[in-house]
Design brief:
By secondary structure, the chain is of the alpha/beta class. Helices cover about 30% and strands about 20% of the residues. The longest helix has 30 residues, at about 210-235.
């Protein structure tokens, strides 16, 4: 079982500092001052610290790892707890998990822990930030027991509120083919597989049989890792009911993560947040699955004046929190001695601190966009200026709804395996989700038949579902993707003759005949001229209401499918193919779009395309949206709810909305005259309205609609509506 709700609820409003041991204040010299850190955190409204117990060296006593050369009798975790706990700050220890260690540790003090990169050889050596070089370790050595003892010592003997682990990866930082030739690996693999681990100086000398043997070795290593994770969880839970948190690195790794590892943990950490758009998408993804999430704020750096940390930090914090995540500030030690730019953290942390109850509410389920990134061979397309693939389509669908103020959640594809969780949403959006298993197809049919709305586009369900697609999470050294336990590499997904969702979407792919093929060849879909193709309403084609077409599939409507939009030529609006087809299935509505419009929206930001994407959702929706917002796209909205209370969070990002990595923003333009309309549920009435950030506003109720006018929104605003 996962940690109890009572012991993970605090994570929803955790405002965290991350103090690692690979940079100052632990390298190159030990300059750590727990009291100074705690005082800085209080001033900046932080309430949680992730503090290292290990890194290059050990920072606590009583473990079988080399201590920091300047540690002496100090215990960094104990000092942190003593300084932070009286100030109401949670303490989460960092447990170095399979991470490389100081070179002297793995070659002199504890050489038995080392990975052997070749028979009779030693570990891989590399530099890591500052100070001494590092060397790689292997779980199939005495390192494993020393690590388990470290975990038990920390959870048993220190007053901690959780345990944070690095990535659960079998071969962290291992180079090349990621093989270890220690006795534990060679003997263990020989015992389970009856094979010797091959080794060659030149990579090209490995035979197919030897590569297959290495694949089996990796699968065996993975099973060993799963056993370790389960053992760690059992150890922790035997002492304290606290959450286990680990580094999954990025949202893309969720679907490919071994479910046994995922289910053994309670929360993730992302090392990167990317743009505000991707942050909103990436945070809502695990929250929809019930997992906690810590996304980095900013990047892994340490200087509070020069780094990427102006208004961008502030708005990353607000965006993270309003979608249900817990912002974690990577390497904030610089703030202790250099107060420059503290305000960009202090202010948003202060707003969250003042309204912890409201920020802890779950996201309101309405439209669910399935997160996707895998492209079958030959599926991705290029154009004159932009391209089309699964990632741009799924992110584009999320963007079109978010920027158009439609309540949207990003959901992991594994949620399609859970009919009960899926049923919470009103609309399911499959933007070019090419492959769907039989279980997922059945759950989607059930969802629609019971009244849910479905939007599907482009090649959704037009490829077969393969049993294994590999795990995208790689070791930081850039090694090859890890694989799921016991898997073999399946043949690539192949295009089918029919859509897997044909029964719902009521369309079939066609091969255009000679005459139609000639017409298609004479027109492009480059979004801008009379020789391009467009989408037009079948009943009332209008030059002023055209939607630019993008990459599309020639299809025909089947019985039960009604053509709503046609693909037409720019010169004369001559229809040539169905473009959008609507149908009914059970109690629900289905909309299929033949074009990858979502991909185009992400790359061009066309208002016409965004309106069309949102109209697809409106057409399929089984219920009206819970709110409407009149404001620029840069004002990002998310609705949360608990019992009879709604909170609409509004984050203003009028800076560099299409951010470039590392760009610092120092000015945020306010948004004026923001108008919000809430749909009042039948049988309810409005009891009270309030803003989370004190400011003037007006409210007016017209029938079943509550309208709130906010003259000015600066960095953030929240509208709290209580019903009865």
């Amino acid at each position: 079982a996962q940690a109890s709700a009572a012991n993970v609820g605090w994570m929803r409003t955790a405002r965290s500092f991350l103090i690692d041991a690979y940079e100052p204040p632990f390298a190159t010299i030990l300059e750590y001052d727990a009291k100074a850190l705690a005082e800085t955190m209080v001033q900046m409204n932080a309430n949680n610290v992730r503090i290292a117990t290990m890194g290059k060296y050990a920072l606590i006593q009583g473990v079988r790892f080399s201590k920091h050369p300047e540690l002496g009798n100090r215990d960094i975790l104990a000092e942190t707890i003593a300084a932070c706990k009286p100030r109401g700050i949670h303490v989460i220890p960092y447990i170095s998990t399979g991470h490389k260690l100081a070179w002297t540790m793995v070659t002199k003090d504890y050489p038995e822990y080392a990975q052997r990169t070749r028979p009779g050889g030693g570990p891989a050596r590399s530099h890591f930030y500052v100070g001494e070089d590092h060397g790689t370790v292997c779980w199939n050595t005495p390192y494993r027991q020393a690590y388990l003892d470290l975990v038990e010592h920390v959870v048993r003997d220190y007053d901690v509120e959780g345990m944070y682990f690095d990535s659960w990866v079998t071969s962290y930082f291992w180079p090349g083919r990621r093989v270890c030739y220690c006795d534990g690996c060679r003997d263990g693999f020989r015992k389970v597989a009856g094979l010797e681990l091959p080794w060659h100086e030149r990579d090209g000398d490995y035979t197919a049989a030897e590569v297959a043997a290495i694949d089996r070795y990796h699968a065996w290593l993975h099973e060993e890792l799963v056993d370790l994770v389960l053992q760690v969880r059992k150890t922790i839970k035997s002492h304290k009911d606290v959450p286990m948190i680990y580094n999954i690195n990025n949202p893309r790794a969720m679907g490919a993560q071994d479910p046994r590892i995922r289910e053994a943990n309670d929360a993730f950490l992302y090392e990167r947040g990317n743009s505000i758009l991707e942050r909103a998408e990436g945070v809502s993804l695990p929250r929809a699955s019930g997992m906690g999430i810590w996304p980095y704020v900013g990047e892994y750096n340490n200087w509070p004046r020069a780094i990427y940390n102006g208004c961008d930090f502030e708005q990353q914090i607000f965006t993270t929190s309003m979608f249900g995540g817990s912002p974690i500030l990577a390497l904030p030690w610089g703030y202790v001695q250099h107060p420059a730019n503290r305000r960009f953290v202090e202010y948003p942390f202060g707003v969250i601190k003042q309204h912890e109850r409201e920020f802890a509410f779950p996201n309101y389920p309405y439209a669910a966009v399935v997160y996707g990134y895998r492209n079958p061979p030959g599926h991705a397309q290029t154009g004159t200026w932009w391209g089309t693939d699964v990632r741009t389509s799924t992110l584009g669908a999320f963007a079109a709804l978010l920027y158009g103020h439609v309540q949207v959640s990003s959901i992991d594809e594994t949620l399609l395996d859970d009919a009960e969780k899926l049923a919470a949403y009103k609309v399911l959006y499959l933007a070019d989700i090419t492959s769907l298993s039989e279980t997922r197809l059945a759950n989607i049919k059930k969802f629609v038949s019971e009244g849910g709305g479905l939007v599907a586009s482009y090649a959704t369900s037009l490829f077969n579902a393969t049993a294994d697609r590999g795990d995208p999470q790689t070791a930081p050294s850039g090694g090859a993707p890890t694989r799921r336990p016991g898997s073999t590499i399946e043949a690539p997904a192949k295009r089918l003759d029919r859509f897997g969702l044909e029964e719902l979407i009521r369309v079939a792919p066609i091969q255009p005949g000679a005459e139609l093929a000639a017409v298609i060849a004479n027109y492009s879909s480059n979004t801008g001229g009379p020789y391009d193709l467009y989408l037009a309403d079948r009943q009332r084609p209008d030059l002023q209401a055209l939607t630019p077409l993008w990459h599309y599939l020639p299809v025909k409507a089947l019985d039960g499918g009604e053509v709503w939009k046609e693909i037409v030529t720019g010169d004369g609006l001559r229809p040539i193919l169905p473009g959008v087809i609507v149908s009914r299935y059970g109690k629900g509505s289905v909309v299929y779009c033949a074009s990858a419009l979502e991909s185009l929206f992400l790359q061009q930001n066309s208002s016409a395309v965004g309106e069309m994407v949102r109209s697809l959702v409106a057409k399929a929706a089984s219920a009206p949206p819970p709110y409407e917002v009149e404001a620029p796209a840069a004002l990002i909205a998310n609705l949360t709810a608990k019992d009879n209370v709604l909170v609409l969070h509004l984050t203003n990002w009028t800076g560099d909305k299409m951010e470039r990595v590392g760009e610092i923003e120092y000015y945020l333009a306010p948004v004026e005259n923001v108008r919000v309309r809430f749909a009042i549920p039948a049988g309810k009435r409005v009891r009270s309205v309030a803003l989370l950030v004190k400011a003037p506003y007006k409210q007016e109720q017209k029938g079943s609609t509550l309208e709130v006018l906010i003259p000015r929104v600066e960095a953030y605003q929240g509208v709290r509506v209580e019903m009865e």
